[in-house]
Specification:
By secondary structure, this protein is α+β, with helices and mostly antiparallel strands. The protein contains three helices and seven strands, in the order E-H-H-E-E-E-E-E-E-H. The chain has one domain: 2-Layer Sandwich (Alpha-D-Glucose-1,6-Bisphosphate, Chain A, domain 4), CATH 3.30.530. Strands 1-7-6-5-4-3-2 form a seven-stranded antiparallel β-sheet, with helices on one face.
């Protein structure tokens, strides 16, 4: 008997130009409170655990309400290189896996900020359908809102 596996690892990559120096952009996005400030109004986020400024090894615990559903999201910060990059990996949350790499690069206009997310949806083909119908759009909306706040720095 053969086992059928569904490939559910998905990717989200996006870059934005911010008209502030790299140092300012990096400080803003590694400030834990920016997590709450940079989500769409339809999502409520409360910080349950995490220092003011993220550093490698920190665990950030969030209570998230989206579509009336409340869940805990716990991530650990890895590989932080000040003013260059850092990674957050979901330890607990709604995805089977989530790894978000943040990159900050000096550009002619200030900073190019790039987000690379590898995520895996649970529930096999049903999860892939949910991703196609609304999860991918919600992720895009979250990052667009994030970038909107970054452009106001």
């Amino acid at each position: 008997m053969q086992t059928c596996y569904f490939l559910t690892m998905l990717h989200y990559n996006k870059s934005v130009e911010l008209s502030v120096p790299v140092k300012n952009a990096f400080e803003f996005y590694t400030n834990t409170s920016s997590i709450c400030e940079t989500v769409p109004d339809s999502i409520d986020v409360k910080i349950l655990q995490g220092g003011k400024h993220m550093k490698s090894g920190d665990v950030i615990r969030l209570k998230v309400r989206i579509f009336g559903i409340v869940f805990l999201w716990e991530s650990k910060i890895y590989d932080m290189i000040p003013n260059v990059s850092f990674t957050d990996r979901m330890l607990k949350g709604p995805f089977k896996s989530w790894e978000h790499k943040h990159y900050f690069e000096k550009s002619a206009h200030g900073t190019t900020m790039t987000d690379r997310v590898n995520y895996e949806i649970p529930f096999g083909p049903i999860g892939l359908l949910a991703n196609r119908l609304f999860v991918k759009n919600m992720i895009d909306k979250i990052f667009i809102t994030r970038y909107h706040y970054g452009c106001k720095l």
